[in-house]
Amino acid sequence: MSDRVQLPLDTAGDLPQRVEDVAKGAFGVENRARLLSQYFAENDKVTPENAWLHAYRLLLWVDRRIGLAHCYESDKCQPGRPWYLRSLRFHDWVTSQLSIRPDKLQQHVDWLFSQAITSLSAASAAMMSDQLSKAALQRQPFEGRFFPEPGEDPELVDIVVNTLGDALSAPLSASVRRQLSERVTAHLANENKRKNLLGEGFEDTLAEILRRIPEVAGTHEVLVRKWLDEIPGFRPARKTTKRRQVDLALVRRDGHRILITAKWSVRSDREEQFRADFADYADLESHGEDFEYVLVTNEFDAARLVRACDNRAQNSPLFSRVIHLNPEGPSAAYGSDVRGAAPEMHKRIASGRLISLQSWLSQLADAKIS
What gap in Å lies between CA 71 and CA 66, rounded to an integer? Predict the structure, then answer.
């Protein structure tokens, strides 16, 4: 495989659609696999103890609206709101764990997204250059009539220039103003593409972690985004039933199956989906043998975590295990807060109902295979 993802740079077609196609390639499965291989080749060997750190270095990001590590919905983390203080606490905790200054976090996390953006930006710039060359010919009949240049946003540039004020040593030229507008707009657009990477990127990251721990990889087959009937011991869905895709599955050498739903965060719509998925899994199990249904998440909302731990299906817990990348993170965020669901979350951690990724990986590595 080449050092950089191969993205289409043909000059035909509509530019926005071509850029969107390039984005799909930059954030797609092949480029993610290449980037993850590169990351793990260049960093410390994966162990149960450092697995969560690798996940954070790859996927955690700084919420630019508040300048702090993202741990909750951005609109609820604005200064003055309860989650701003919790974000401060989490930022303090995670930078302490990484042994870095709080203002240096961005340099140590978000690796997967930043690398994908690099691939996207290079290809998009090449396409834009070609498109502007064609546009120059189209604009020739209108020269001298003060038509705006492509990508210009005078209002945006004026906001930046007026904010900088006397800090600017000289007025910005027209070309610099245009470049400023284009780069700010592109930056904001790129941030909006994070969701294109985070969902499957989290699944791929967990899969790579599992495969790189010898004691786990030696006893389990790691399956990513497989249809349920592609996993041993599950039959195809009825034609009138929606076919289910499983985020991750582990099939142990003795046939034991672990179905994993991997969600960076847990919203209310996902909570409803968990129960529907499990009902289908149970209905389509064909070996008459138990399987585990596991949630792996980085959710920080105490109430959501408690619900995940307490959710039941018939007469037993819905999830065999609820796994957080590192429960010390949400514990640090809540601090000594005794309101709402925080005390209940602490109880689930203390009882072992909510466990760390490290604990789960160690259990997998120590599993007795019959």
Answer: 11
